[in-house]
Each structure stands twice: as structure tokens, then as C-alpha cells.
Specification:
4 helices, Nucleotidyltransferase, domain 5, single chain
Length: 161
């Protein structure tokens, strides 16, 4: 199942997508926010393009767990998106995703300019990978083990005959 993830900010929306198996997240793009309807249209277009079956949106919660003004803005975006698409939409705690994204880009040796340009898409990727790792995608159960076959050519002990 392919999933689209969004890191919604006031100026940009970072976008990431999972692979078709729902196990690996990849940063896709950053949407420069304009009007709500245009933002929603771009998200829906990306969901179609990547054949997403679900959208996960990062919910900004303070370290204490309390909602913030940004939490309310994201919740409003979620409500608008739910009206505009039949796709299932979930929220997922995004605490420290931007910090982790910044750390990964520094370790990769990206310049400050490239980090600024890509931070939101990377944060969406970190968010989505956390969601996937937490079991957000229902995976097919493993097939049952093969039944044990008795060894051929061995005779039963005489006491069992």
C-alpha cells in the first residue's frame, strides 16, 4: 500500500511517499503554500500521481503533549482535505521530525542552502518512516509453515508395529 505523508507548515508542505510495499519512505517535494484550495488540489494531484491509498499528516504537538496554535492550523487543513478526497487520512505525532531530518541532512553533508530547501520534504519522510515502522500499514501475515514430513526410509521401532 502506497502512502503519502505531509508535513504541513504555514509557508510550505513537505511531501513524502512510501514504496508500494509500504516499508520505505522517500522525500518527494515541497509545496509552496498559496490558498487553501490550491494547496489541497496539489496534495490530491500528488496522491493520484503516486497512487496513494492513504494520506498521513504530521500533527505538531508540543513536547509536553499539549496542542498548539500550529496543531489547530493542521487540524483545520485535515478537515478541509477530508472534504476534498475520499482517501483515508490519518494524523501522526510529528514531534522532533524536523530535528531528525536536519541531523540526517547534516550527516549527509548537504549545504545549508540545500538543507533549507529540502527540510520539509525530509521531515515528511522521517514522519512517514516512523509511521511505517510503528506498523501503520497492515502487512500480510506470513504463510503457515510447511507441515513436517516423516523421514523416508526409516523404519518404525519394533515396539510400535
Amino acid at each position: 500500500m502506497r502512502i503519502l505523508a505531509l508535513d504541513v507548515g504555514t509557508k510550505t508542505i513537505g511531501v513524502a511517499a512510501s514504496d508500494p510495499t509500504g516499508s520505505l519512505a522517500t522525500p518527494i517535494t515541497v509545496i509552496r503554500r498559496a490558498r487553501a484550495k490550491e494547496d489541497i488540489r496539489q496534495v490530491i494531484d500528488l496522491a493520484k500521481r503516486y497512487e496513494a491509498e492513504r494520506i498521513v499528516i504530521g500533527l505538531p504537538i508540543s513536547m509536553s503533549g499539549a496542542p498548539s496554535e500550529q496543531t489547530r492550523l493542521v487540524e483545520a487543513f485535515v478537515r478541509e482535505l477530508r472534504v476534498a478526497t475520499p482517501l483515508p487520512i490519518e494524523t501522526f505525532d510529528e514531534r522532533l521530525t524536523t530535528v531528525e531530518a536536519e541531523r540526517r541532512m547534516r550527516e549527509a553533508g548537504l549545504s545549508a542552502r540545500k538543507r533549507r530547501a529540502n527540510i520539509d520534504a525530509m521531515a515528511a519522510m522521517v514522519l512517514l518512516q516512523g509511521y511505517l515502522d510503528a506498523g501503520g500499514v497492515a502487512r500480510s501475515p506470513a504463510p503457515p509453515p510447511e507441515p513436517i514430513q516423516p523421514a523416508r526410509g526409516r523404519r518404525r521401532p519394533t515396539s510400535q508395529r
